[in-house]
Prior knowledge:
By secondary structure, this protein is mainly β. Helix content is about 0%, strand content about 40%.
Amino acid sequence: xxxxxxxxxxxxxxxxxxxxxxxxxxxxxxxxxxxxxxxxxxxxxxxxxxxxxxxxxxxxxxxxxxxxxxxxxxxxxxxxxxxxxxxxxxxxxxxxxxxxxxxxxxxxxxxxxxxxxxxxxxxxxxxxxxxxxxxxxxxxxxxxxxxxxxxxxxxxxxxxxxxxxxxxxxxxxxxxxxxxxxxxxxxxxxxxxxxxxxxxxxxxxxxxxxxxxxxxxxxxxxxxxxxxxxxxxxxxxxxxxxxxxxxxxxxxxxxxxxxxxxxxxxxxxxxxxxxxxxxxxxxxxxxxxxxxxxxxxxxxxxxxxxxxxxxxxxxxxxxxxxxxxxxxxxxxxxxxxxxxx
Length: 341
């Protein structure tokens, strides 16, 4: 299909916002907007002639600007939490906004998802957005030239490539915060979905901050090496998952997860080169006006966030998200769709 573009609302500075539709010959269609380089929709075949939208989102820019859940957002400069909203780097101390108790979550206010990104290139099946995060943005040192590329392939894959070129050593930990419901974005709880993770360890946390330990998943609610429903954890973890698993990618693109819808039979395999995966089952959701006027309640979607570990800057034994002009940030994640039939 030819690339289509539509008005999608207005940014806080009055700038027009647009929605872009990418597609393939098999009928897969992905919607992205230049507001935050955000993923808006993802229609995939279920093998029975239907193309449900399996991505949670909003109908226009206004929804994303008031969104507190980062639906489909590119999160930067640092995804997840930094304890105490402060860190030291190269002998200097930096203080961030504390927006999650005493911690910084997803880099605090002035979110990247509130900014209109520039379209750098586009084809019928791909688009690349760029944005300059200026020196000192959100409290971090240096500037970062950020780039996000989305590409739809004919074998039903959505490829997401994140890049960041800093002007000096700084933290860069980018992720896409898409929430998935493979039964359809408004189909209700995902707790019947089956999840499988290729991870033997995770980072135990106290108050959502890692203790520094890397623990084995065996014998814990975090063991999803064999397929199990998301809801299987609820007896031991009533709030569901908001946890980080340690991946063994070693910087190579690897298959790390598989998700399957219990109603549609749609499957999604996750491939990434990132060292960590944060799984969040959205227990706090209460979104009254989502896409199509639908109401998203608790557990309406699951986020599979490929990234560096939470609070890594304070745990030198963790992979470190510190990058330089000579060693820029780059990460690739692939969402590969199919059916269980």
